[in-house]
Amino acid sequence: MIEEKFDAIVVGAGMSGNAAAYTMASHGLKVLQLERGEYPGSKNVQGAIMYANMLEKIIPDFRDDAPLERHLVEQRLWVMDDTSHTGIHYRSDDFNEAKPNRYTIIRAQFDKWFSRKVREAGATVLCETTVTELVRDARGKVIGVRTDRAGGAIYADVVVLAEGVSGLLGTRAGLREMPKPETVALAVKEMHFLPEEVIEQRFGLKGDEGCVIEAVGTISRSMTGLGFLYTNKESISLGIGCLVSDFAAATESPYALLDTLKNHPSIRPLIADSEVKEYAAHLIPEGGYKAIPQLFGDGWVVVGDAAQLNNAVHREGSNLAMTSGRIAAEAIVQVKSRNVPMTKRNLTLYQAMLDKSFVVKDLRKYKDMPALLHTNSCNFFTTYPRLVSQAAQNFMRVDGTPKIEKEKATTAAFIKARSRWGLVSDAVRLAFAWR
Ligand SMILES: Cc1cc2nc3c(=O)[nH]c(=O)nc-3n(C[C@H](O)[C@H](O)[C@H](O)COP(=O)(O)OP(=O)(O)OC[C@H]3O[C@@H](n4cnc5c(N)ncnc54)[C@H](O)[C@@H]3O)c2cc1C
């Protein structure tokens, strides 16, 4: 198919692949990017919140023409039981700044725009091309790829694996293990279309302002999971994700969970009369720091979701993907400029640079959190949300019961549900995991 040799081949045109391809091409490297989808973004699913700071480091003036939906001025964090939500809301006019910090995006549009930038930077982008195999030399160094198109191998000094969470290519090549069911979540999502002014009215927004809701509680039916609602210009993204191992152990289907979320009394009015036009399902890496595989080797590096670089505690993924893609590319540019080969030894630079970034520092900070939530999911996702709701209702309902008795009743309910020792143990483990 393509006879020439490239400085780098990038597998995948998602957030990490586009960041890597753009960075290398704009430094003058000869880059080929291969994407199995019909167009970049056609296979990609995200909530989606996009973090401006990480994109600014790649394309500083992205706001001039990127397809952005709303900039976020409000975040709601809800703990839900079957009939209520208890929430923390943070809203600030400071987020109405000249260069807003977070935006909602629609990946199908955003990835197309990002890919256009990659082409403009000088990379060759081929869609509808699945990379089927890595090509190695006699010493095992990766020297290119084979695809499902007619023709032989395509060669490059280095291959950037940006193939997303399933990472079949890297797994088949023995570069890493298949993600385990307890380290990946399956998320389902729907797009609910509504007129712009209805969205603004329901969420108290004006202009391009946006609001997001993230929710835990009985909506995940004791499984480790999170629900989300993000406002776009003329649509609302609504979804929920839970660990694959939890789905396997329970009898719940992802779609049934989403149905329950849609019909929850706190959510139903927000999406009333909307038209559902899209439904999607996708995996999210949730294993945290301990699930990160080997990130580089002779002739290859791995970035983004394929490297399990996802911060489940803060619900960040695309920014870690963009940053790891950019840093891997910068490391490759440096190795190339020194005129030395893309060996494992020289590509250690990528790991060293990534270790200094927020990506690894953040994941290391919460390294025990995923395991804690996964093993204690019934308490964190059902027992405590119900207790929080009871406590809030007990506090707010004025019925002649003396306050001292209400306080005693709330304390007794917590102790009955978890025992004193259980409460102290959960608090200590949470504090340690958060440290
Ligand atoms: C429901 C949901 C909501 C999310 N919400 C958010 C959010 O709000 N904010 C956030 O920051 N993150 C969010 N994430 C996470 C975020 O989407 C990911 O972290 C991010 O997309 C990872 O980018 P990536 O480039 O590594 O992988 P991807 O975006 O998955 O891209 C991988 C690309 O590789 C291509 N590919 C795969 N195999 C091959 C092959 N063999 N040959 C050629 N091409 C191949 C795929 O088609 C795809 O285009 C969410 C994820 C999900 C599922």
TrEMBL record:
Name assigned to this protein: Protein FixC
Record keywords: FAD, Flavoprotein, Oxidoreductase
Role summary: Could be required for the formation of a functional nitrogenase Fe protein. Probably accepts electrons from FixA/FixB and reduces a quinone. Part of an electron transfer system.
Family, similarity comment: Belongs to the ETF-QO/FixC family.
PANTHER family tied to this protein: ELECTRON TRANSFER FLAVOPROTEIN-QUINONE OXIDOREDUCTASE YDIS-RELATED (PTHR43624:SF2)
Domain of life of the native organism: Bacteria
Listed cofactors: FAD
Coiled coil spans: none
Source organism of the structure: Allomesorhizobium camelthorni
